[in-house]
């Protein structure tokens, strides 16, 4: 079985496409319930992604409710495809969200918060392995962003599917996860 990023991207994009809306909803709910068991709730600054619906990503709406219910500072990003950089904005009641050309929902503007302040990051991914390596869409946005965070920042991958044994082509610049949460399992690395 090939376990290179390219093949894994293809495999998991296909698996995701086969999920029905009901399955995705139930799995997203299971993932957000799992998060309650993690030792992260004493932190204040949480970064979350808004799902690209067309890519069948995890619905993070439930996690957003969880965070606002616990009165956390929630950050969402805007991506610059030229520089591959992400700018993080505080999510407030007045934040306007607009989809960019890649269908990524993003804040139009707002109060900027530096990466260094962020304590917990929820990370989208296509696949991950038992060592905490992840496969994203291959643009390197998150690796760059996570490299700007503190060493203590907690990195949590969210996945509909369980871990692969091992991703072969891991690079030095690939940031490892601290946890990955699936509907059934909490992986701690």
TrEMBL record:
InterPro entries: FTHF_cligase, FTHF_cligase-like_sf, NagB/RpiA_transferase-like. Its EC number is 6.3.3.2. It is an enzyme of class 6 (ligase). The keyword Metal-binding applies. SUPFAM superfamilies: NagB/RpiA/CoA transferase-like. It catalyses: (6S)-5-formyl-5,6,7,8-tetrahydrofolate + ATP = (6R)-5,10-methenyltetrahydrofolate + ADP + phosphate. Belongs to the 5-formyltetrahydrofolate cyclo-ligase family. This is 5-formyltetrahydrofolate cyclo-ligase. It comes from Flavobacterium zubiriense. The lineage of its organism: Bacteria, Pseudomonadati, Bacteroidota, Flavobacteriia, Flavobacteriales.
């Amino acid at each position: 079985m090939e376990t290179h990023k390219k093949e894994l991207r293809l495999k998991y994009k296909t698996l995701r496409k086969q999920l029905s809306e009901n399955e995705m909803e139930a799995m997203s709910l299971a993932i957000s319930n799992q998060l309650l068991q993690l030792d992260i709730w004493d932190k204040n600054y949480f970064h979350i992604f808004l799902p690209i619906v067309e890519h069948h990503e995890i619905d993070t709406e439930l996690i957003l409710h969880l965070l606002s219910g616990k009165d956390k500072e929630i950050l969402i990003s805007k991506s610059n495809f030229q520089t591959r950089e992400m700018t993080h904005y505080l999510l407030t009641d007045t934040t306007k969200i607009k989809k960019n050309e890649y269908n990524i929902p993003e804040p139009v503007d707002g109060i900027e918060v530096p990466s260094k302040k962020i304590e917990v990051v929820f990370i989208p991914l296509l696949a991950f392995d038992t060592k905490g390596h992840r496969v994203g869409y291959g643009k390197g946005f998150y690796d760059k962003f996570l490299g700007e965070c503190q060493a203590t920042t907690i990195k949590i991958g969210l996945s509909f599917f369980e871990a692969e044994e091992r991703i072969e082509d891991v690079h030095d610049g690939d940031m490892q996860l601290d946890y990955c949460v699936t509907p059934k399992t909490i992986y701690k690395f």
